[in-house]
Amino acid sequence: MVSTQSIRQFNIYKFVLTIPGILIVYSAIFTIFFLLRLAGGNDPIALKIGGLTFRWYGILITLGVVLALYLTQYLAERRGEDPNRAWALLPILLVTGIVGARLWYVINTWEKYKDHVFSIGDPNIAGALEVWRGGIAIQGAVAGGIIGILIYKRFTGIKFLRWADFIVPGLILAQGLGRWGNFMNNEAYGRTTGLPWGIKIPCEYRTRGTTPGTNDTSCPTISADATFHPTFFYESVWNYAVFLMLYFMIMYPKKVQKFLKIRLRDGDIFLAYLVFYSIGRFFVESLRTDSLFIVGNPVDGGIRSAQAISIVGIFIGSVWFIYRHRRTETRDDEALSVRVAPRSLVPAVAATDATLAADSVALDEVALEAENEEALDKAGTLADEPAETIEEVKVASIEKSGGNSSEAELDEPKSES
Fold first, then answer.
1. Of the candidates 101, 103, 240, 246, the residue with the CA atom closest to the CA atom of residue 164
2. Which of 70, 124, 144, 256 has its CA 20 to 30 A from that of 219?
């Protein structure tokens, strides 16, 4: 029987990286998929209340954003940063992300929108600005999100790569969840297949090839009983695997350091996201029937924009990662295995050592690295418990030495984490 103390000590942020946590999530993913598959078709509408219509896609996207927000807060606070910045970033990322996603889609389907850029309310065709009528690209959203972080950095001075690391684990988690919105919309499926897990797409939801970048899979062309690759499901499964990898890297950087023989630093999680998400997207995109094309079309052949961007992402992420670790050493204030010192001063220490008080700005970037790997493993995470600040170490040093202090005692501060 589960005790009350066990419930209080339960930490979902740790549990997701345990074997039971991984098995539970993947079991749920596969069970839900096969149950919905047996239903033979999904209803995009979750609920109607009066004139309000709640669609599964919107509900799942919203849930993904909420999960990403709380995960970003947790990772920021764990590193010693202000978690409230996540709330300040949210509206900026939503705006720039949606604009980027829609802009990328419109650019790649320009023939469809060129005569309807400012059209609003036309029942026959959506205008370029009517994002609520469908048509967004996740890679455009990621690009827009990067621009949003840079805008926020311009006014607040946050470290871009550090905050990108905080954001991308939640981002890939939200992407995987959002793919289930495609499932409920009966969209973003692949070509026909005879595999046991192939899914049926109702005739009214199939692509007809009239939109640039889509194949004709309509019922007069392909049998109503045909089954298609569930590409949205493939990507969802891959995205969660990438989330687990990124999350493990940021939670247990010392374990990764032992394996890769390099010291992870700010930005490495973001670069790993670019590489591993892009690998999965490249292969899944090859099965899609509604791909956006930079050049050409699905009939005559051409270059799929998502695959082209994926290649760019893999190249930039991998080359940048290798270059930065071969050319420069990772400083303490950039290492993922250390924690930024909180922005506070202990008055007693400031009075005892005037130099410390005068140099308080520099202390904002001091990082405290744990020396005992066994203690880290026992804790289950690097900094679940607040690390000692440099001021607390100074006080302890003063008390131990009977009121005398020395700079040497601050060189290797010990962490409680």
1. 246
2. 124
